Amino acid sequence: MFRRWFDPLDFPPAGKLKTKAITKELGFLNDKALAAIRSNSENAADRLVTVYKDNPLDITHLEKVSKDPRWAIGSSFMQLLEANVDHFGVEARSTYNAGHAVALEVAAGGDLKTALAVNAFADHFLQDFFTAGHIRVPRNEIAEIAKNHPYSIPVLKRKSVMHNEDGELGLWLESPSGEKWKAFGDGRLPGKVFSSETTSTNLDQYRKAVQRSISKVRDAFNNKKAIQLSGFAAWHHAPIMDKVSMHKNSHDPLLKVQGSKLLMRVNGVFSGKYEVLDELTKGELPGAKVTG
């Protein structure tokens, strides 16, 4: 499956036109972000945050560009946004594992350049596992419930609200290596927060994981042998999902799934109280704007 996702990146003519058009739209933002990163100054991280805050993406315009009939190929921006369950929780983990495995096989076969490109694609899903708004939202379960739910649009909005809430309030995390830190959402990158409880930062942790990910690809190339799933070293520095909601200072998740029922938290972020979403889903929930 991951091979099929990666191979279309070698686009046919229409796909190349679409890629160029979208890249052109994102070019100004990317140039400013790269300038901030390359400045190598003490406030580079703050400058990068400012770039993204001052230059929000115009999703409506990008949707229009992606649907231009001159390059009628692949999904539109909104279609991807509505179906991106592989960017959340266990699905993100599984997607990274699949991509990293392909990269290791390619590297073991002697093609290091392609292997690193495949692994970079996989590392995007690894990164999602470090973004607070992507860690514990039950995106796939909600999508399944919404398929047969008479009020699916409000249900889908609620998952966006949970994504935004976790990203804004942040979550306390712990890795299998014993590191502890607080992560926020994409909108608050790089999320450098220090306190008596933290031993690291989210940016530090992600860098460690990516470095281990890349080193395993190089090892596979040098040894002409791919390692098994149990040896995927990136996860030594990634959050343990089962512990995310257990930390005393992490707020309760807005949504939980029990069987075929979707529950929503009531009476405050630390209340521990939930109600089944049935007739409530007919109403609108404020703050459902999709963000990073």
Characterize this entry briefly.
With 292 residues, the protein is mostly helical. It has helices spanning 2-6, 13-38, 44-54, 59-66, 77-82, 89-108, 112-128, 132-135, 139-147, 152-169, 202-223, 241-244; strands at 171-174, 180-183, 255-258, 261-266, 273-276. The strands form two sheets. It has a three-stranded antiparallel beta sheet. Strands 1-2 form a two-stranded antiparallel ribbon.
What this model shows, in words?
The strands form two sheets. A three-stranded antiparallel β-sheet has the order 3-4-5. A two-stranded antiparallel sheet has the order 1-2. The two termini are 26 Å apart. It has twelve helices and five strands. It is 51% helix and 8% strand. α7 runs antiparallel to α11. It is mainly α.
Report the helical percentage: 40-55%
Total beta-strand segments: 5
Mean pLDDT level: 82
Secondary-structure element series: HHHHHHHHHHEEHHEEE
Q: β content, as a range?
A: 5-15%
Count of alpha and pi helical runs: 12
C-alpha geometry: globular
Distance between the termini: 26 Å
Widest beta sheet: strand line-up? 3-4-5
Structural class: mainly alpha
For the biggest sheet, the summary is: 3 strands, antiparallel
Model regions low in confidence, pLDDT < 50 over at least 5 residues: 279-292
What is the rounded Rg?
20 Å
